[in-house]
From TrEMBL, chains A, B, C, D, E, F, G, H, I, J:
Keyword Nucleotide-binding: no
Function according to Swiss-Prot or TrEMBL: Catalyzes the reaction of cyanate with bicarbonate to produce ammonia and carbon dioxide.
Pfam families, sorted: Cyanate_lyase (PF02560), CYNS_N (PF21291)
GO molecular function, one term: cyanate hydratase activity
Taxonomic lineage: Bacteria, Pseudomonadati, Pseudomonadota, Alphaproteobacteria, Hyphomicrobiales
Catalytic activity entry: cyanate + hydrogencarbonate + 3 H(+) = NH4(+) + 2 CO2
Name the UniProt record assigns to this protein: Cyanate hydratase
Alphabetized SUPFAM superfamilies for the sequence: Cyanase C-terminal domain, lambda repressor-like DNA-binding domains
PANTHER family associated with the record: CYANATE HYDRATASE (PTHR34186)
Family recorded in the similarity comment: Belongs to the cyanase family.
Species annotation: Methylobacterium fujisawaense
The EC number(s) this enzyme carries: 4.2.1.104
Sequence ranges assigned to domain Cyanate lyase C-terminal in this UniProt record: 76-148
Length: 162, 162, 162, 162, 162, 162, 162, 162, 162, 162
């Protein structure tokens, strides 16, 4: 059994039952909707309690329930760059604004990255009379590059004082 | 003259003067810091007034000022996937959560995309005693696929009523 | 069930019945022929009414009907660049004239894109005594890049007044 | 001398003089604006008369004038898929609608292609109160696959009579 | 049913029966052997009469016969560059002599291409006491780039008179 | 000095002098025009006598003359697949007809290849009232795969007797 | 039936029977062990006599026996560059020493190639007290580039006399 | 000025002076040798104190000193996969043992990653009478995936109790 | 039977039984846990004794047991660069520190590589109050490039005496 | 200074002087001709004595002499797969016979590789009345995979006794 077979099975059941993701979020519960969806799509694991409730909801075998609790081999896009327009627009943002992210995050935080692991996300509809907007809020822990052996205590955050 | 030569020139001046991006944002003004940085990095144009102030700040020729006002050939990442860890993490988010974005945006808004053109962004430091966090807020207009010729007025947003 | 399996099923039925696309367009109706074909090929969703009529025409299950109403993961070309000569010629047009599109659209409309989402298309045979021609008419909404924070009201469309 | 050096030179002069493409089209004349732009960008040759007028307009050497009259090695996009959003949208259209083009053109015309060589194009602004639209009209000669040795005169256009 | 499945079926029957291509060409007839082979390999369609005779020869269903009459999605090489040495040598010829083709065809014919659509081909054994040779004769219609809007009637074929 | 610099120099001189390839072929002589062009484009070496005459014609240094006599690192296409339409059509022929070449050459000659090394080529204009045609004649020595150790003398050419 | 299915079948039988390649070489005989292995792996054809003995050894159908006698579509590496370390080392040799091969073979033989078609190979264990060595002996016919039309009889092998 | 130009300059000076890395490590000091080397190669920034000492050692300008203190665009391999055998072997380890790393780290630590940011490394020579060995010790902070919204406190580390 | 099918079978059994890797290591024994895991994942062979115990543990057929004892075609990552974040971080280390590895290993050992074949590895949890760390210890035999024919006995390890 | 600039300089001098590789081998001496050529082409280092003699022969600076003594970043092929026919044939051998190498070397030696580091090579002309042959002899140390922790002394070389 491969994880993508399980994903296809879950989507087939969702379609046959006519469920929304919201319905699935409420039935599984105890975790951000964002994570529950990603787990059903084979990109995150479900913690044990949620895997159990998912198994009940979808009528899974014990092995399938355990698979939902395993960290999957991540990477959900069939080919890169993504050919689907909705997903491509995010990829485009990285291409166009990636170097801007780098400059501004580094000027504010110093040398390091925004974690994609200790990371949280939320999506909301932003009503707007010119057309509603998708509002995404991302929050990732800043992880500074560690300079092991550094005996110099001067803070190293860019040229702020420059 | 190529746009990347102009970008390199601006970064050389910034480094020689010891300027921060914040200093550049304030000197140019009248536009989100996010856009001013992207324009200096050759990814956005500067409107005429800003291009003029940038030309004064950096001491540019008239042709360079005009080039700043031209829409550039966008795409700032030297190679894809990006090799720089800070930028790669955003790429990773698209790979891991791209299909989740698709499912949740479509369930909420119907078939369409979040615009990367009518798009705004903000970055803030989120103080946290386990380590500060990078908070990014993105807001893009939702653009529904137009179904020309559709004579059916039933709303088409997923299976909400299902 | 994957969307490409459904596409293959529809094409098998079309072949077995000896139907033309025109026959399918008329049977499903209420939408541009262009969109109905794209939906059958797994690139667009069919609105609910059309999905229902398609299900009747092709004898589909309820789950298959629902799948036709879902926004698909788009991208119909088996590999890129396309190896099929008919499709490749369009790709070639992008390679050869892409920068021309960029210059001329930007000079006329300013910085932005032609939408591939709010987009309509039509194909017609153009009789010509040197050999008939394929006439394609495309119409996409122009989406200007939004310069958030811009406090400058001067129109920014190229150097028209220059 | 390489063709891209000549292209860069022309764009530098255009920027320094503050010319629009329209100004260049009128000065060179006698050819569709679409083709003059493509030739300046190194994708088409200029016929001799136009190359002569271009040389006068831009102040070129005789060798540069001759280069403008040579068929260039075509292919204008720095990398593929194109990273620039305006050009990418056209590429996306090929990916999403390429198989639809194939089905509909073949049903109407039989087995063959739309020429990208005997090809004409026009762009116009389409006023629209929901936002102006870019209207592109393409017309390419249909070239049927020749079935040499075919001794059968039955027309071969799909299953129209089916 | 996919076209490659049909191709595999035809090759299986050919192998089981111990047929040569020559046998198949004679049985189907009315078309160049070159085209009949390409159609059996899923790269060309067979006209209706030939598809009918092929169906009789191979014992195909009506749907398979119709599929033989459809223009296929062309592109027969499993991966590119081709790994098979016989086919690779042709690819090598394009890499080594491609620019020579371009220079010589353009000097003789002007700006344009040799059609791969209105195209014919023949292969013959050329006896030679140093080892027999493969002789390929290709003939493709020259298609000149059309310079729409060109008001200049001077022929544009290179510098012949230079 | 790189070979491509020498190629660029030769093309610059050809353009400045307004020479045709025909003129160059006649001036260098003693070798097929096809090979002389390929050598000038950096894909073949010129034998010593021809290199000497080329050096006189173009006014080259002794080192440049020697470089013309060296076997170059072959491969003339800037990127693959070729983006130039004229050259791409040849590439397309390989993609579409490559497997046909394999089947027909093997049936006639047995297991082996058509040499791209002991290879000759000719191009001619074929007058045709529907539009002139490019006629290419290729002749390459057939090279059979050697089955070392084979103690079986039965000819191995397919199933001809089958 | 595809050739890779036949390869998989042969390897399954070899494993089930616990045979070595040496056993298979002896049972099939009459051809270099190197070629018999390559044929079983789907990269070479077996001559008729050997295909017959292979069919007896492995218990194949008549169609499978015939397939063993067909020239396969060659190219045995699942992806390139090869990920398997043993095979990669050979690939590495080409990358590191490829240009050295070119210089030394050309200085000795003139412009041409070492044939990979009229080619023989042998592997032996070379006892060595620092660790045994793999000794590979390759012998390929030198194929000189033919300079058709060359009326100059001076030998053209590099600068030997220089 | 680009970072790779600065790297080339540092390596030129190192070569001209005949310095070892050890000499450079001692002269700059206050940081792991591993990081100092990486910074000189353009992959890490040097903290301010070290950048100052490096500027003295190599005789750099103030702008070059500041550039050493900037986080570089990381990614040091000219092309991927790496063609250099020493570096390739590490790449091979990832290909062969990557999935093993994933299984064993996850079983021990749960779902997450080993940080490449909060990461330290050491290399030592391990004397061995069969040939000395390279000993690398890597230590990276384990970063668990955060399951925001998880209201379940059961530890989630694989099936340890299973 | 393909090796990946066997891997999938082993993982299915592991999941159904609820076994840990530790349990499997103990049951098979006599080899580093690191190697046993890699063998189960299809990247290493198991020696005969271990293959036998694995066959007993998992209930395998004799052919499956033999397959476990065969050297597999190595390369475990579904696509490269790896999309899974845990594995990608190792790939990132190669990209960022690969050139540093090269410089430091070569300065210490001379020209050569760290073997990925005579290679050992260990993983341990390193308790740390800022968060536990993954500690990896790698040890690979240094393999010096052999300079055959070198009659010079001067040690060649960089410029240490410089 | 980059290594490829030094390579270009050496080849320019070789061409200007009209030297053969044989001349260079004799002048530098004390090392296999194969290695001297590879070092001049930037793929191997020259030991100190040879670097000194090369510096005298070519008239190099001290820094250039030192660069010749540094292990280069290896990988000599401009792009992969190689486009030059002579080099490509070796690449083709890896593609066609790579899996055969794997099977036969492993059956003879067990699980491991042929070293590309402790590796020697020789080329000779093999007179043959059907055309001379290139004879390459390669000899690489066999490196067995080390199975650390293996407590089983049974030899593991395939199924020889099977």
């Amino acid at each position: 059994m491969k994880r993508e077979d399980l994903t296809e099975k879950l989507l087939d059941i969702k379609r046959e039952k006519g469920w929304t993701w919201k319905h699935i979020h409420e039935a599984i519960g105890g975790l951000s909707p964002f994570l529950i969806t990603a787990a059903c799509l084979g990109q995150m694991k479900l913690p044990k309690a949620q895997a159990k409730r998912a198994a009940e909801l979808f009528g899974l075998t014990e092995a399938e329930e355990r698979m939902l609790n395993e960290p999957p081999y991540r990477g959900s896009i069939p080919s890169l760059p993504p050919t689907d327009p909705l997903i491509y627009r995010f990829y485009e943002l990285v291409m166009v604004y990636g170097t801007t992210f780098k400059e501004l995050i580094q000027e504010e935080f110093g040398d390091g990255i925004m974690s994609a692991i200790d990371f949280n996300m939320d999506m909301a509809r932003e009503a707007n009379n010119k057309g509603d907007r998708v509002k995404l809020t991302m929050s990732g822990k800043f992880l500074p590059y560690k300079y092991y052996g550094n005996d110099d205590d001067t803070p190293e955050y860019g040229f702020k004082e420059g």
